[in-house]
Amino acid sequence: MSIVYLIPLFGLIALLFTAVQSAWVSRQDAGNEKMTEIARHIAEGAMAFLKAEYKILTYFVIIAALLLGYMGASHENSDWTIAVAFVIGAIFSALAGFIGMRIATKANVRTAQAARTSLSKALKVSFTGGSVMGMGVAGLAVLGLGGLFIVLKAYFGAEAGTDEMIKTIEVLTGFSLGAESIALFARVGGGIYTKAADVGADLVGKVEAGIPEDDPRNPATIADNVGDNVGDVAGMGADLFGSYVATVLATMVLGVETVSANDNFGGLAPVLLPMLIAGIGIVLSIIGTFFVRISENAGLSTAAVQKALNLGNWGSIVLTAVVAWFLVNWILPETLVLRGYEFTKGGVFGAIIVGLIVGTLMSIITEYYTAMGKRPVMSIIRQSATGHATNIIGGLAVGMESTLLPTIVLAGGIYGSYAFAGLYGVAIAAAGMMATTAMQLAIDAFGPIADNAGGIAEMSELPKDVREKTDILDAVGNTTAATGKGFAIASAALTALALFAAYVGVVGANGYDMDGINIYKADVLAGLFIGGMIPFIFSSLAIRAVGEAAMAMVEEVRRQFRTIPGIMEGTGKPEYDKCVAISTEASIRKMMVPGAIAILSPIIIGFLLGPEVLGGFLAGATVSGVLMGMFQNNAGGAWDNAKKSFEKGVEINGEVYYKKSEPHKASVTGDTVGDPFKDTSGPSMNILIKLMSIVSLVIAPTLAGLHGNSDHKSSAKKKAPTEQVAQVRSAK
Amino acid sequence: MSIVYLIPLFGLIALLFTAVQSAWVSRQDAGNEKMTEIARHIAEGAMAFLKAEYKILTYFVIIAALLLGYMGASHENSDWTIAVAFVIGAIFSALAGFIGMRIATKANVRTAQAARTSLSKALKVSFTGGSVMGMGVAGLAVLGLGGLFIVLKAYFGAEAGTDEMIKTIEVLTGFSLGAESIALFARVGGGIYTKAADVGADLVGKVEAGIPEDDPRNPATIADNVGDNVGDVAGMGADLFGSYVATVLATMVLGVETVSANDNFGGLAPVLLPMLIAGIGIVLSIIGTFFVRISENAGLSTAAVQKALNLGNWGSIVLTAVVAWFLVNWILPETLVLRGYEFTKGGVFGAIIVGLIVGTLMSIITEYYTAMGKRPVMSIIRQSATGHATNIIGGLAVGMESTLLPTIVLAGGIYGSYAFAGLYGVAIAAAGMMATTAMQLAIDAFGPIADNAGGIAEMSELPKDVREKTDILDAVGNTTAATGKGFAIASAALTALALFAAYVGVVGANGYDMDGINIYKADVLAGLFIGGMIPFIFSSLAIRAVGEAAMAMVEEVRRQFRTIPGIMEGTGKPEYDKCVAISTEASIRKMMVPGAIAILSPIIIGFLLGPEVLGGFLAGATVSGVLMGMFQNNAGGAWDNAKKSFEKGVEINGEVYYKKSEPHKASVTGDTVGDPFKDTSGPSMNILIKLMSIVSLVIAPTLAGLHGNSDHKSSAKKKAPTEQVAQVRSAK
Fold it and tell me: Cys bridge to B707: A477, A626, B554, B610, which one at CB 3.0-4.6 A?
């Protein structure tokens, strides 16, 4: 059973790697005085936001922990320590955001400086920055989950098949709840921050004053660059930390119920497997990072960079598949049983492969819908010729259409992984998909670092070729950001489904007899409707927040242009910190209501209408959240690249249009609409659906106790897993 | 039992009323030569479209009828006559569209002429036109359903509780399928037509050439006015015909299963009730129309017109509630049982009241979200000050937010009507809501007639005060159109749910044992995802079709402006029919794929994955369709009124903006984006979800037979209803 100690070890390895790489980045040249001055401004702004955000969240964490502790203490299948797990999850999640932000605000200026030498060097610095964040997030997750599991198991004296083990996992759910709550606030708050600053800076700077992007005369430019860090780095870091933990945890919850007789780990192999896959995934991701390099003599093209990243990415995915084969064969027994569904270890491996294939297909489809030169983006470009309105119609149509193939792939993935290994298969498919999160995150995070480097290059008036190099990295970063979102939503859907299954199990195990969630019942269907509505109202709040915060930013920038003498000539100094303060204040204020909706709505529905209606609610929210996520992410990505296409000129009906042409202006409108879609509300969807599932899972024992009645309460307590396997065996 | 003959009689009364009113409209003065010439152009264009559309649909109807006939003949619980019922349903639906179009193209020019006298006269002509359509649609529906029921009952020799009665209703489902399929094509085809012409005419006429709306120099102006008739009149007529039939039918299907012992109609009271309510609703609607009048001395304000319409509308709703009380008390026995759920006749009345309340609340909420001067529209106006993009973000946020309250009302309605009278309650709530369809439709249809009258006034250069009067009617028409959509989507949701319940019953009655639709099963959940995606892809196709057809229209108008000499000076005559042909051709071509998706997807899912997955699919499609419908309808309505607000001037941050200001231009962009939302894809959603449910219901017996296996096939045939009641009674 000592294999369990390997798990936190993997986490420590990742954190060690993080420390080494981080030190390497710090040692790089940070450039001239002007550059470091600007970088300092950005870093300070970013830290100011994080400080303000974490301060508010501290209150939330304390209150939530007290409630959780009380709930845990008052229920036999839970424990007050769930509050401790929750707090640790929240702290780790915050830490993940902090590590990412810290390294990103160091790597940005060093990437700009490296770009003065070569593209290869710039890639190295920015990607190393990204991988510090990726490994940091993954390391914290594995360390936290693995470490807590060991401690709790010892504390409760839990063995496979016992009530103590159920309690251990129930308490561990608190860790995931903490992680995912912070993730939601970080994603939404960061998303509002970055887009309010971006849209605000563009509307006055580019459109009204006619100065270029990242011009130091624009008072909102620092806020804009801070936004890249708090939204695309810290927000995303917390987001993926939460997702990663939720996915592994969901598999563990189902693993506890899975009967794994005669395995070499006291029947715990199905619980350990997801953590081991995650741990090994980290090592394979570290190996993958070494593939990401381009030759010093590579020309200035995006193709070489993209190829290097793909090599790293596919490399780690293929390695994961290979290692998973050996791992599964080694630790699992020949046959397993979950809720009467018997499957083999070969089936478990099959489900992992299904997960990897689904993830890959989702990335490819997402890229198709958002990449330059492909049919969807071209259709938006063509529709820009007849004005703003047709550009918008085109983008909305592309976004809605883009739900078709991913939904079919996803449905096929659910179907396939279930056929292979039942509900455990669905969960392990998601875990397999998420195994290379560290690599995914490294690839995702290098984009905003390069974007920031370009901003610093512009503001410090570095030679034009520096910006050209950072632009190449930025362009590749846009593609990886889009595909990363496709990946995230797919894994979220599978994870939500696994959590959903876990929820049904926990409700059942706590005396509320429920065979499933029957939408044929009127009240469950009512729950399905209300759940489906949540992603709409959540998105509405998020994009409205961006619109309103951007308008406040516009007012402030206009005021500075009006009242600060010499600002346009470059002799008067803009008050950057005023704009930073506006974004900070607005984003923190406006993340509250959406966050509250996510956390409170399942609680209200559950306590008011019972566990089965809550099940319908979760299903509705998951389906609608996945669809709205894909719609918004892809529409936003496609609008963005339609606009970018004009930079090199596009041909519409035989005429070539460039920047500043009328069709280009229409495409800028689309891009601005797409900004909150793709960076605020869209990516929040995957956290939203998982967070609501986790909240439900945490309250499930209490709910079941409260609503259990003569109709529903099981006459006997749920059969222990060992009885269950005996029964299945004897039935053969 | 002779009460059943009352039902077609109500239909005949409605058609008689239609004929009388229609003759009255025809007798009105059609104005001067120029006016009649223009009206002739519009009428010809509209008929040309209808002819082209019905020609294509004839092929579809023949093929579908053959397949249906074969399917019906080969299954014991169905019959080849389902093909006949289908064809009659299709013909009646087409006829409903035709009647509406015919009267609208007569009433439009006569309304323009009446407006030369007084607002009161203009309202009278346009509203009488609308009520011809309303009564025609309702009359055909009641005549068709009632008449067919009598004929089929005699043909099969069916009595309550027998297999023959199940067969009668199964065949009657064919009537609804015919009605709803034509409705979908008419709504989508008409919606594409009207918005392609509208957007195309505006983009070149208003924006590029700078000529006003409905200017006779614009070659697309006739097509634009034709569009109002084919989309807002014929399309809507077929749509509501289909909805009305589907709602009544869904209640009948559940009525057949409902055990109504000791009633005075051979146990058939629950089957007859929805038809009787519909029939009486027609009479009450006729009474309601007499309330709709304003004084000759009424000033030129929208308030008086709105008040008159409200009086008519609320009048018929209150009368319905009162009459329903007596009707229910008279025909139903004290207690009824449906699938083991016992309820009283008081409960049935309660459910009807729930339906009326839900419909009323939906109208009020929809009006709030789309009316001028209210918070949502004001927020869009404010966001227009910072440009096109923020206007769009504002409208999208309003649309998404507008799903909140209606969803809660709807969920409450489902919950409440179920509590009152089980699944029969849910269905009868929808039927109660739809009882005053004739009145609703009259109120809805008068708007496009007035809109057309304004166009004719403009083109024939009538005095300015004529247009002022038609504009007042048009403005009121916009509000009633928006509230009508809120009503339609609510009734569609309840109807879809009733059909869903009926589907589960029919599957069970045909030997496939299914307790419900359990979304906890992976395959059912996969179906839920795919179903949820359908409204997205359907909307995408619809709005893209509008975008592309509008672009073709733009090209043609530009060509005419370029090549026809003297066109701008009014000496050269534009080729109106070329534009009419473009809209006609494009709309018919582009309605095919969305139509095919709606009809084929449930068939494919059902045969490939079985009845329970199809259930999940239907639930997903219903939830997502309702939400997407509300989102798109309300966003479109709010954008429209935000734009209209600029006509009288709006204050933003202390400054007043009028037409042609920059914020107004931004609002025009929003309105153009909203056009396909609110008139093409949005209103199609309610037909889509019902059509897919009806298709599923029709194929249910075949599906159940095909997929029945050892796991699922009931050992014994479903208990006959009489046994069922005995069982429930004895259990007490």
Answer: B610
